Amino acid sequence: MTRVPSRPSRPAALICGACAQALALVAFADAPAGHPFAAPTAIGQPTTPSVGGLGQVTLALLIVLGAVFAVAWVVKRMRGLGNRVGNAIDVIADIPLGQKERAVLLKVGKAQILIGVAPGQVNTLHVLAEPIDLTPPPAAPTDSRPTFKQLMMRSLGK
């Protein structure tokens, strides 16, 4: 069985290094006298980033971010459009019972069903024989006590 070393041995590394130096010398010898390096032309002064280039990059970034937010807004608005076909099931009310548990009152057609929702399961708790009317009761006669707004305006002298 032949063992393959995971890294080159020291003599192999020396031979590879010597070959690389020999190739560099051959390339250097073939170069024209005016170009001692591999670069095709002489490199001038290093350029500094211009303000116009930075402005273009900033503008492009703002356009991309604006497009991302616009698409997110459109997706959020479009998500509810498909759910309103027929209104067969409506959530009338829900109340949290724990950290992840809720009781939800559903209207299915003309019937109302109370369900319990927990992670990984939904249970029917009760089917109501008579639907619950959740319209707010008529406004009670106004109380003679002043509201917070009235108290604040009076304390400010207005």
Summing up helix and strand content along with how strands pair, one would put the structural category as: alpha+beta
| Total DSSP E strands | 4
Strand order of the main beta sheet, please? 1-2-3-4
Q: What is the averaged pLDDT score?
A: 76
Shape: elongated
How large a portion of the residues is in β-strands, by DSSP E?
15-25%
Compressed to H and E, one letter per element, the order equals HHEEEEH
Low-confidence spans? none
Main sheet attributes: strand count, strand direction, barrel closure? 4 strands, antiparallel
Report on the architecture of this protein:
The chain is α+β, with helices and mostly antiparallel strands and 158 residues long. It has three helices and four strands, in the order ααββββα. The longest helix is centred in the middle third of the chain and has 29 residues, at 51-79. The chain is elongated. The model has no long low-confidence stretch (mean pLDDT 76).
